[in-house]
Amino acid sequence: ERGSGTLVPRLQRSVLAPGEGVLAEWRVAEGDEVNEGDPLGVLRSPDLQDAVSEQEGALENARRTLETLVLDGDINAREAEDALLALQGTLAEAERTLDTTERLFNIGAASPAELEDAQTAEAAARQAVENAQTNAESAAQSRALARRGAQAAIARAERDLAAARERAAALELRAPITGRVLTLEVAVGDSVEDGALLVTLAS
Question: Which of 181, 137, 161, 138 is nearest to 56 (CA)?
């Protein structure tokens, strides 16, 4: 108040624990002047550190899953292509045989049964090629879907890891304002609950 001889702080701010933990150290003392953003102290939280490690592992697993899908998909695609080429070769041979048999049949040099056999073989070879093409397309779509799922899992894991690291980084206490440290509410080694009052500052 004016004329009282006492300076009343214009603004007081409290620093609360961002999570459960143990106060590892103070980097200031009561009465110290600090600037906004200056480090005040550090909490240690095994749970939050474990969460970071867990998310790092989840991200690594997600990346390995995608790598495996890509490698396996490439191998399967090559195998399917080779199989389709072989079936197309069989179809080409069946078509040639049918063409020859039809010409022989037309001049009476091949029996109806031989013509029917050639037609059946050609139809079967054509159907095999069509089935292989359909299966290859379906498999490619399934691989693409699996890759998108794996990529989405990586993105989620990256977000979760960033959040875990942010929570862990918040354990480094920083001054919310420029001013003076009025009180340190806990001692080094004390356990604190989430939201517990740790420091009071005044500007």
Answer: 161
pTM for the predicted model, two decimal places: 0.65
Lookup result for tokens 């459960």: 20
Distance (Å, whole) CA 132 – CA 121: 16
The pairing of beta strand 21-26 with beta strand 33-34: unpaired
Spatial CA neighbour of 171 closest among 17, 14, 9: 17
Q: What is the pLDDT of residues 159-174, one digit of tens each?
A: 999 998 888 877 889 9
Q: In Å, what is the CA distance from 178 to each residue of 13, 33, 182?
A: 10, 8, 12
- Decide if 32 contacts 179 (C-beta within 8 A): no
E-assigned strands of the chain?
A: 12-16, 21-26, 33-34, 39-44, 172-174, 179-184, 191-192, 197-202
Q: What b/e sequence results for 91-107 when a residue is b if at least 16 CB atoms lie within 10 Å of its CB, and e otherwise?
A: beebeebbeebeeebee
